[in-house]
Amino acid sequence: MSYDSNNIFAKILRGEIPAHRVYEDEHTIAFMDVMPQADGHTLVIPKTPSRNILDADPETLARLIAVVQKIAVAAKKAFEADGVTVIQFNEPAAGQTVYHLHFHVIPRVEGLPLKPHSGTMEDQGVLAANAQKLRDAL
Q1: Domain coordinates of the chain in residue numbers?
Q2: 100, 102, 104, 117: the active-site residue
Q3: What is this structure's pTM?
Q4: How confident is the model over 56-108, as pLDDT tens digits?
Q5: How far, in Å, are 36, 37, 38, 63 from residue 115 at the CA level?
Q6: Which of 47, 68, 72, 113 is the residue whose CA sits 20 to 30 A from 57?
Q7: Residues 28-41: what's their mean pLDDT?
Q8: Is 100 a catalytic residue?
């Protein structure tokens, strides 16, 4: 399958849809997931069009994973987490629903289960506050 330039993350990259951005460099952006499974749930995406890990250029992946690590370290600190879950899906059978390469970075607290990725959007004030916490930790 090919890359769809009208996916929601491509629209965020073009500024057509707002997002609570926490990090950006010339190759990558990170922003808050609007349906977080835990406080601080962040998405890290390349600016280069890639459907998923299966078609991504190795240089894109190298730059992207470095930012994933940076966000994971900051998220653990900002949200006083005991650990961090990093998830990445490829194609529908694996659970991918947005066809732009992305990593989920989710701070985890021992004994606290993930909330469902339910389709219910988080309050924008909460997302803004969590984004600021993460920016402060970076």
Answers
A1: 8-137
A2: 102
A3: 0.96
A4: 999 999 999 999 999 999 999 999 999 999 999 999 999 999 999 999 999 99
A5: 7, 4, 6, 29
A6: 72
A7: 97
A8: no
